[in-house]
Amino acid sequence: GGAMAAPRQLSRFWEWGKNIVCVGRNYADHAKEMQSALPSEPLLFLKPSTAYVPDGSAILMPPYSSNLHHELELGVVMGRRSRAVPEAAAMDYVAGYALCLDMTARDVQDECKKKGLPWTLAKSFTASCPVSAFVPKERIPDPHNLKLWLRVNGELRQEGETASMIFSIPYIISYVSKIMTLEEGDIILTGTPKGVGPVKENDEIQAGIHGVVSMRFKVEKPEY
């Protein structure tokens, strides 16, 4: 027999959390820059748990894309099993937060959109979900009052306020939990503000929630 599995700690949710649920087009200014209509309900897609990249590790470029973009997002980490949760109770199911990047193969996504195909190839590749350290819920009394920022090689690229979200976090949790059961350690990415753009090999991405947490990643080509 091997060693017993280490106890699951929410502070390392990316090592054992199963589901990564992403909300597209949740900031009007980003929908506009993508020339997309404003959604009447949340647009959802999934990433596999192997998409996680912890702070300080390398973001790997998908070899089939030549236009990899950063999308800066607030992630909501679930603290317990959530199924058909009413909006009024939704925040009771939250354990904390993490800053996330929804790395996107934009050229591939454009092709998918043209053909009416799912976005899996554009959004769900290995290393497509870089995450910050876990931030316990107590440290963020109001998740709709945060400033997010992202720099590439020191240059400010994205800056946004979670107050600008189209769908609120309790609404999103309730909506998602009526479609799929969420479990402890699962995360919901709540959409990106404007300013998404390309990164290339050897770029350094730094991002943060102002006054709360920051993170840093190097962009690398995989060895295959």
From TrEMBL:
Catalyzed reactions: 3-fumarylpyruvate + H2O = fumarate + pyruvate + H(+); acetylpyruvate + H2O = acetate + pyruvate + H(+); a 3-acylpyruvate + H2O = a carboxylate + pyruvate + H(+); oxaloacetate = enol-oxaloacetate
SUPFAM superfamilies documented for this protein: FAH
Look up the domain of life of the source: Eukaryota
Claim: Ribonucleoprotein is one of the keywords in the record: no
Swiss-Prot/TrEMBL keywords: Metal-binding
A Pfam family reported for this protein in Swiss-Prot or TrEMBL: FAA_hydrolase
User: Its GO CC terms?
Assistant: mitochondrion
Recall the GO molecular function terms of this protein's record: acetylpyruvate hydrolase activity; acylpyruvate hydrolase activity; metal ion binding; oxaloacetate decarboxylase activity; oxaloacetate tautomerase activity
Q: Which residues form the Fumarylacetoacetase-like C-terminal domain?
A: 20-219
Q: Which Gene Ontology terms describe the biological processes this protein takes part in?
A: carboxylic acid metabolic process
Q: What is its EC number?
A: 3.7.1.5, 4.1.1.112, 5.3.2.2
State the family named in the UniProt similarity comment for this chain. Belongs to the FAH family.
Instruction: Quote the protein name from its UniProt record.
Output: Oxaloacetate tautomerase FAHD1, mitochondrial
Q: Which organism is it from?
A: Neovison vison (American mink)
